Amino acid sequence: MPFDVSTLVNYVIENTDVLVTKSIFGARTSDLLRSEGTVMTGIKFAEQINQLDTDAIFQDGAGCTRTSSGTTRITQRKITVGNIAVVEDLCVKDLRSKYLSKVLAKGSQENEIPFEQDYTELKTKTIAKQLEVAIWQGDTTSGNANLSRFDGFIKLLDTAAASVNGNPTAITVATGITSANIKGIVDGMWQDLPADVLGQDDIRVFCGWDVFSVFIAAYRDQNLFNFAPTGSEVKMENGEVIIPGTNYKLTAVHGLDQTKRLFTARMSNLYGGTDLENEEEDFDLIPDQFKDYLRFKAAFKYGVQVAFPNEVVSFKLV
């Protein structure tokens, strides 16, 4: 007599040993700020970035008299950090009726998950992803949970209204950023820098990956191999190239994706602030003492600021 399996659902083999986590980009801008040494630590709420500027007025030095001239200015820009927390309660018992039940700890007191490393790695990468976007697009008045913790570079520069206009020809939203105009846009981003900033070795032009792709495609399609957009220390696949004919880097960051904004600045002009360096990478995953939950918590402070907005070139479609 054959088996009667009419009441059984078809079984699909599922891999209980490996949980594949999707690739998520990290907080690249935060890493760049840290590598350049412009992350200020120990900030509980706000702190001033102290700025020193002076001039030098030449005088006739032939005589023995002197006349004091010139001014040394001490100014400040305040960097304010936002208090950020990420919490999640995991009920491990929810896994009992799923395929993961085979790898749960024996007994009824389940207080750990079998894919803990995958979970924590994915969670921290997701935090880094949200932080990257907030560094550029943060707006405390946005009403968006992930963007309202601190003001990002875009709002800070737009509010200061002191940056150099990177769109002097008034390219419109209707025209957009295309392969026909992208080289001119990027060249303008460094050519429009104040003269005393030009030539510095820490200048970067920041853009979204969508704009970066248009730039690369424009050079490829025109077979401009004499100015192949690569450099000895940067790689196109990593989202960074040397702008042909310059020593300036075009850097793609996911925080500017879909914004159609570009910014040129010295890295020494951009600041990040936190209470504890690398604090955004710390977390707790512990069982609740009284309830059957596994509790995740990450807490950190972060904020950004621009020391001299008038030394930044800002591109925006009109």
Describe, in plain words, how this protein is organized in 3D:
- This protein is 19% helix and 23% strand.
- The chain has 318 residues and is α+β, with helices and mostly antiparallel strands.
- The chain has one domain.
- The strands form three sheets. The protein has a six-stranded mixed sheet with strand order 5-13-9-6-8-7. Strands 1, 4, 10, 11 and 12 form a five-stranded mixed sheet that branches. Strands 2-3 form a two-stranded antiparallel sheet.
- A hairpin with a 6-residue loop joins strand 11 (284-287) and strand 12 (294-306).
- The model is unreliable at 11-24 and 99-103 (pLDDT under 50).
Short description:
This protein has helices at residues 28-35, 116-137, 153-160, 182-191, 209-221; strands at residues 39-40, 46-54, 72-80, 82-90, 164-165, 203-207, 240-242, 249-252, 262-266, 270-273, 284-287, 294-306, 313-315. With 318 residues, the chain is α+β, with helices and mostly antiparallel strands.
